Predict the structure.
Amino acid sequence: MAKKSVAKNYIYNLSYQILVIIIPLITTPYISRVLGAENIGIYSYTLSISAFFILFGSLGIALYGKREIAYQQKNKEEYSKIFWEIFLLRTILMSISLVIFYFSFVTKEQYQIYYRILMLEILANCADISWFFQGLEEFKKTVIRNMIVKVISIVCIFVFVKDKNDLTKYFLIYVLSILIGNISLWLYLPKFLVKVKFRQLKIWRHIKPTLYLFIPQIAIEVYTLLDRTMIGTIISDKSEVGFYDQSQKIIKMLLTMITSLGTVMLPRIANNFANGKKKKIRKYMEKSFNMVFFLSFPMIFGIISVSSIFVPKFFGEGYGKVAILMNVISPIILFIGLSNVIGTQYLLPTKRQKEFTISVVCGAIINFIINISLIWKFGALGASIGTVVAELTVTLVQFYFVRKDFKIIRIIKSSRNYLLSSLLMFIVCLVIKSVVRKPYFSMALQCSLGCIIYFVILILLEDKFLFDIINRIKVKVKIKGS
């Protein structure tokens, strides 16, 4: 199998993540106005419930499967066998989860129609084999599939969702887009697999290793999904869930530009680890840290600068609290970015699940304690504080575990250029904000001038990472031109 380019795979994955960013920019202002904060809250709350059952049905299999396929990239017979074993195991577990979900929620009267629709979401996750293609570093196929499905779902939202009574239609569009997208990947499958006899399959051998990955995933979900569930349970006003969800949505949209690198790097580092190429792993890791600093600092300061103008114009009236929540949550862009590099790109591919598990369990415990302490009094703001402290905890614990593998002080020092450039950019943006009174013009000016200032300062500081990117682009342009 030909070796895939990390840069190309990142571009494929990033192009999809950019689409993921653009779609909410198109649909969220419309949906937030048409459905209203309460319906958005119901949508987020019920989705958080089904997500727990998908999590338990998945049992960490997607991450594990991606890694195991990556280890066997050159052995078609072996990875074909692994694919069927993992797929059948996931199907069995997801079926059990579906039955429990039905009797726990679908049979209840409150939100019954939405839970019925979300049964299809659980079935859709049975058919998800994107982990297989990611393990083979075949990102192009998953990206093209996802792009087509996302575009169709946008059209459906504007055609079918017209008022507050169309929440059911919104659920259906969401679930069917996942189901169709996952089924479509199966069309590519015959090309990559060889025939395997059923009696050769050893499904249950994967239970123990997937459990090691399942525990940290539960912990991660505690401070991602449980936030919404706890707000919806503790606070009677479901609008609080809507405010929290919308603030998270914007932050996570930007965060995908950083975490998409982890999706690409996990199979690559896993493959290098299987072949004993430690120097290459170290080189990839250094670049990943630089990428996180390069993107996260301007994003954080940019959000804080424009949020008070952006939120009322983007979401409409009644969403003012989202701006405050966005400012509070914004540091997770840096924290999750760094933990994505250490955890997803390094600890998991190098079979150090134990350290990864400890880090996310620590974060989950901290998040749960803060949520219990603050949500009842501060609502979504309390959950936001809990999220930030939890993500910081995960990052610090992971840094502690890799202190002998990487020079932590050197990593921190490598962020200086990006922090300084972002601070100067932020000062200019605040000046523009105080002088320019027209909201749209102020946002446009802050974004455009902010970007220019950020890159100009990095050039003046002769930032090595930026110049490496520029030189690589020059080389590629030159090759294409010749």
Q: What stands out?
A: The radius of gyration is 23 Å. Residues 6-414 form one domain. The chain has a mean pLDDT of 84. The CA atoms of residues 143 and 304 lie 31 Å apart.
